[in-house]
């Protein structure tokens, strides 16, 4: 939903397109406490933040914040550090030390900086199915450090952070500052094709010498490709060059997979590949938060729910929603309708109808501006029209903020306009009891029974759509595969 978002919204009024770009580039999770490092493996340095010089500590904090904070899970932290320790010992630079941070983000990403800071998102961890797959990702990122590729990333990040400071501090536009910092995440994933292939070769060698199955890289790239394909189908989009995900710079193309396979064959035959440690890894990720963290709002089907801020709304039928730190974005199956929900500050002496007419979006038809009340909240609505898109906009005053609920359509028919109005009327306050009962989705590890099938286990998942496809991708299975009796598998459940 990143670069293609610009194509989908081509022709929008300038202000709205910029706002959508902000939402499309950022895919952040919730802020959480720093990771507990008391159970670090021998090769990892405890107290990562304290060990960093002040300047690096500051940039580390900025980077972690851009991915929703650090995810606290001592058991999983220790498991990753044990894998890193084995990889370091088998690498060309056993003298290097890596400090691991799990990022609280559903995005699929991992990267390493020259100072030994190694980052991996919980979104990536949820896709891996064994230690060998995890090792393939970590070894690849370590290879960038060993080959000195990561020095480029550090320079790019410093430049991007500098730009974000100038924009935020001088221009005083926090949205533009956030966008600039978000672009640093994209640059962090940018290496040349030659550098990527070199890191592939080095990483596979490290994994193999550490005793891991070197074919883990091929399996994980394939899984990421399938995940990206399902996600792009859901949002009527495809992964693009500005996507901050790991896959954006590690495309699971047949060529790349074949090269990784060839690298693996240099170290092991497919029938004797090495350790996968599947059960050990699945035990470590049991209970891992999956998808959105409710502390920052989450999507359940066509409904968005934010227990912390205390509101909810339901999108029109047929819409797929995606939550980001800047906005909730949605699109219909056809791609001819879309929506954005975000929050802004509006001066208390400015009416909502005045705000809608103030010029922050072009093409507002003044005759359509009207004042109304939605579930007890002051609101205003209006229609704006561009060359290719028309918009039904709502501004809803909720506490000290104003929420903008903006629907877009290629052809704003009376029927669509009514559906947009009906969706806006679902915006309401949630009760304290509702908020307290909200639980995040998590990965749960279940053991396959004698009569279990992929369809039967998929039916147990708390997902709104594509349960079987999600189950197969999460577990590295294909349609028609049978489950192993007594074997562990991942499902998604509260």
What does the model show?
The structure is a single chain. The chain is α+β, with helices and mostly antiparallel strands and 494 residues long. Helices cover 41% and strands 18% of the residues. The chain has helices at residues 3-8, 14-25, 48-51, 54-66, 74-90, 122-127, 131-146, 150-171, 174-188, 193-209, 216-234, 254-265, 278-285, 352-356, 414-424, 432-436, 454-458, 467-474; strands at 99-103, 110-112, 117-121, 298-300, 303-306, 311-314, 319-323, 328-332, 337-344, 370-374, 377-385, 390-398, 401-409, 428-429, 442-447, 488-493. The chain has a 7-stranded antiparallel β-sheet with strand order 7-8-9-13-12-11-10, with helices on both faces. β5 and β6 (311-314) form a beta hairpin.
In the predicted model, the low-confidence regions spanning at least 5 consecutive residues are: 1-46, 159-189, 237-244
Name the average pLDDT: 79
Q: Report the span from N to C terminus.
A: 26 Å
Number of strands: 16
Q: Gyration radius, to the nearest Å?
A: 23 Å
The backbone outline, from C-alpha atoms, is elongated
Widest β-sheet, arrangement of strands: 7-8-9-13-12-11-10
Structural class of the helix and strand makeup? alpha+beta
Main sheet summary:
7 strands, antiparallel
Percentage of residues assigned to helices: 40-55%
Portion of residues in beta strands equals 15-25%
Summed up, the helix count is 18
């Amino acid at each position: 939903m990143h670069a293609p978002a610009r194509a989908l919204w081509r022709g929008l009024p300038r202000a709205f397109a910029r706002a959508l770009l902000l939402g499309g580039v950022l895919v952040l999770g919730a802020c959480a406490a720093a990771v507990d490092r008391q159970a670090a493996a021998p090769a990892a340095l405890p107290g990562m933040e304290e060990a960093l010089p002040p300047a690096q500590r500051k940039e580390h904090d900025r980077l972690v914040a851009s991915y929703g904070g650090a995810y606290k899970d001592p058991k999983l932290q220790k498991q990753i550090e044990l894998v890193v320790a084995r990889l370091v010992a088998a690498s060309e630079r056993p003298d290097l030390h890596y400090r691991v941070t799990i990022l609280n983000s559903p995005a699929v990403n991992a990267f390493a900086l020259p100072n030994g800071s190694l980052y991996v998102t919980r979104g990536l961890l949820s896709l891996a199915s064994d230690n060998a797959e995890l090792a393939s990702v970590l070894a690849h990122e370590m290879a960038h450090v060993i080959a000195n590729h990561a020095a480029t990333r550090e320079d790019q990040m410093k430049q991007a952070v500098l730009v974000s400071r100038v924009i935020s501090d001088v221009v005083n536009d926090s949205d533009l500052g956030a966008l600039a910092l978000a672009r640093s995440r994209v640059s962090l994933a940018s290496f040349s094709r030659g550098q990527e292939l070199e890191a592939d070769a080095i990483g596979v060698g490290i994994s193999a010498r550490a005793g891991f199955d070197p074919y883990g890289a091929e399996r994980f790239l394939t899984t990421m490709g399938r995940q990206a394909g399902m996600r792009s189908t859901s949002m009527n989009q495809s992964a693009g060059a500005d996507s901050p995900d790991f896959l954006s710079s590690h495309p699971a193309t047949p060529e790349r997979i074949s090269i990784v396979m060839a690298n693996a064959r240099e170290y092991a035959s497919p029938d004797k590949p090495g350790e996968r440690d599947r059960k050990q890894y699945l035990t470590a990720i049991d209970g891992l938060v999956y998808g959105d963290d409710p502390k920052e709002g989450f999507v359940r089907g066509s409904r968005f729910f934010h227990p912390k801020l205390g509101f909810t709304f339901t999108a029109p039928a047929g819409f797929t929603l995606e939550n980001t730190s800047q906005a909730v974005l949605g699109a219909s199956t056809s791609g001819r309708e879309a929506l954005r929900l975000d929050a802004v500050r509006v001066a208390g002496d400015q009416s909502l109808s005045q705000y809608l007419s103030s010029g922050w979006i072009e093409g507002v038809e003044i005759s359509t501006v009207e004042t109304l009340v939605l579930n007890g909240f002051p609101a205003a609505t209006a229609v704006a029209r561009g060359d290719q898109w028309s918009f039904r906009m709502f501004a809803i005053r909720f506490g000290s903020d104003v929420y903008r609920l903006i629907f877009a359509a290629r052809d704003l028919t009376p029927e669509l306009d009514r559906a947009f109005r009906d969706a806006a009327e679902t915006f309401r306050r949630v009760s304290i009891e509702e908020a307290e009962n909200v639980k995040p989705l998590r990965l749960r590890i279940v053991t396959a029974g004698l009569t279990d099938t992929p369809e039967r286990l998929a039916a147990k998942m708390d997902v709104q759509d594509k349960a079987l496809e999600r189950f197969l991708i999460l577990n590295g299975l294909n349609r028609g595969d049978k489950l192993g009796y007594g074997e562990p598998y991942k499902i998604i459940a509260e």
